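Figure 3 (text version): structure tokens given as input.
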């Protein structure tokens, strides 16, 4: 009888689990926000935040699918499978096919990353914030930016253009921190913590510094996006409810700040309270427009 009771319990548990709706997650290797390879696998800030969000949504089963970064936006645009992605920036093109949550993470914005004490850059831009439109016109400098990503229009308009020193390239086969160290490029437009991660990955002591870009806000929001279907709409409602609670917890902030330097954390602190209490989707800061990727 006891054995029969155990069997019935297991069957009921299995039935209950199979009856749960499945929430599909698309992710990619994009360190240090998403890390699926190497010693820090699973320790990206978005990995840690997503793990907390999944735990806060026990009414669903969760399946995570790894997709190459260059393909994740294209796959999201063409697949008929309902899915969500943690850590996506808003663009008008993405808005056509996705619902967006309330802000799910706060991060420093794109910046000009360079070797510490770069004489030419410091001479050209003595102020703290760098004027992008001036920087790209300097013929003696070489800038690098990653392809296949959405950027503010003020940046996107300068990539691979005549008269601009800013060139786009894939960063899957090259390490931008090593290019800076070898002085093959003078600056890289990216998030500062990504350059620090590349420096760790290269196992080189590369002293880097970053300067904010004057034409864009110094911080930004990122979101959870879900398919623009009735299922995706319902998922976003549940995700928003969970985020409202998670954003008040110190563990959530700790995961978000996992790869930020002290300088970056100080930059974010004045905006953190507003982030915690923002419950509605914000189509990015008003003064920032993004390219349609």
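Below: residues designed for each position.
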């Amino acid at each position: 009888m006891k054995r029969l009771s155990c069997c019935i319990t297991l069957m009921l548990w299995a039935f209950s689990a199979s009856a749960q709706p499945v929430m599909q997650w698309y992710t990619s290797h994009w360190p240090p926000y998403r890390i699926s390879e190497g010693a820090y696998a699973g320790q990206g800030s978005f990995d840690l935040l997503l793990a907390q969000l999944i735990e806060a949504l026990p009414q669903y089963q969760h399946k995570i699918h790894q997709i190459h970064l260059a393909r994740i936006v294209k796959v999201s645009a063409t697949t008929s499978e309902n899915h969500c992605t943690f850590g996506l920036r808003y663009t008008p093109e993405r808005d056509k096919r996705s619902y967006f949550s309330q802000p799910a993470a706060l991060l420093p914005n794109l910046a000009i990353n360079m070797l510490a004490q770069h004489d030419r850059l410091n001479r050209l831009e003595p102020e703290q914030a760098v004027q992008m439109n001036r920087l790209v016109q300097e013929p003696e400098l070489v800038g690098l930016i990653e392809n296949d990503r959405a950027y503010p229009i003020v940046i996107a308009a300068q990539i691979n253009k005549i008269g601009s020193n800013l060139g786009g390239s894939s960063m899957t086969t090259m390490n931008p921190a090593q290019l800076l160290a070898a002085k093959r490029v003078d600056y890289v437009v990216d998030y500062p913590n990504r350059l620090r991660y590349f420096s760790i990955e290269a196992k080189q002591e590369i002293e880097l510094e970053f300067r904010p870009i004057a034409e864009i806000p110094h911080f930004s929001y990122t979101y959870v996006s879900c398919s623009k279907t009735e299922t995706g709409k319902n998922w976003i409602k549940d995700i928003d409810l969970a985020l409202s609670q998670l954003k008040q917890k110190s563990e959530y902030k700790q995961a978000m700040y996992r790869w930020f330097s002290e300088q970056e954390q100080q930059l974010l602190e004045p905006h953190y309270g507003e982030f915690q209490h923002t419950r509605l989707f914000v189509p990015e800061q008003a003064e920032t427009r993004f390219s349609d990727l």
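The domain at 21-107+219-277 is CATH 3.40.190.10 (D-Maltodextrin-Binding Protein; domain 2).
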